[in-house]
Amino acid sequence: DAGVIQSPRHEVTEMGQEVTLRCKPISGHDYLFWYRQTMMRGLELLIYFNNNVPIDDSGMPEDRFSAKMPNASFSTLKIQPSEPRDSAVYFCASRKLAGGYNEQFFGPGTRLTVL
Amino acid sequence: QKEVEQDPGPLSVPEGAIVSLNCTYSNSAFQYFMWYRQYSRKGPELLMYTYSSGNKEDGRFTAQVDKSSKYISLFIRDSQPSDSATYLCAMSAGGSQGNLIFGKGTKLSVKP
User: In whole angstroms, what is the distance from residue A36 CA to residue B43 CA?
Assistant: First the structure.
């Protein structure tokens, strides 16, 4: 299996521009997670989906952030308009429902810089 | 108080040293405890997983959970330069709940 795939790996944009991050989870996984990682705040959960349905979006910082999962093999995280404080590494992770064990498999991340 | 507290370090040790990494937590519902390792510019990868209290050993790594104290530890014996990474603790209540709660991570450097 190729693992979780994220694109782009790096994104540099200017304040006010729309940014779209993409994720392909591991085939057969039921859950998909979007995280943001910064030095100051560590790894923060933004939103997660179960069977393509958003379950908890309480971590989404504000209305500028939105996420979709139109099918089991694709998800997007969109920031519109972007701001410099959105600069971070964004990770996508997926897991398969298997009792209580909760291993999440992470993608390589998208490093976002907003100028 | 955050649900999970972890000293961010950085921690620098000589090769061959024993390393102790720790996290405390406040939610007594947590049942599953994990340690993830994250190399520079990579995504976190699961290193160790423990259910409830007790110890678990895997090669040079030992994970300990003390639920009465709400305290978990990861020990690395005979540390190697290849162990240099950020170590994140993570925990969950398990079951159908999907999400993990992560510590901020401790950056470890093992010097040759």
Answer: 11
